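Hi, here's the filled form for the chain we discussed.

Project: internal
Contact: R.S.
Residues: 122
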Amino acid sequence: MNKKTVIIGATNDPSRYAYLAASMLTQYENEIVPVGIKTGEVFGNKILDIKQKPKIENVDTVTLYIGPQRQPEWYDYILGLNPKRIIFNPGTENEEFEKMAEDKGIEALEACTLVMLRSRQF
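And the returned structure, exactly as it came back:
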């Protein structure tokens, strides 16, 4: 059940939720595309520099790990990835961005990627 998932706010710091999500998504055999401001790699995938707005095709899910105050400069980039859905993890909820996504036909979920995976709702 491979869903290409872009992790916005990816990091190779094991204490961060974005790292745990990358780990669990990989365990559940989803293709991950880590994107963030940090460099390095996570589970064999190079973290792509969000400032370069990397082009990514066939995105199923975007899972957000950047707070609402940091999101506006990336709205167009994230929406332009044309994901089927965006998961707003705890602490990333953003009514304005959720509405923008829904207006483009993208499902906006306020949920936790880790819980969704564990409960087979991903």
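Let me know if anything looks off before we file it.
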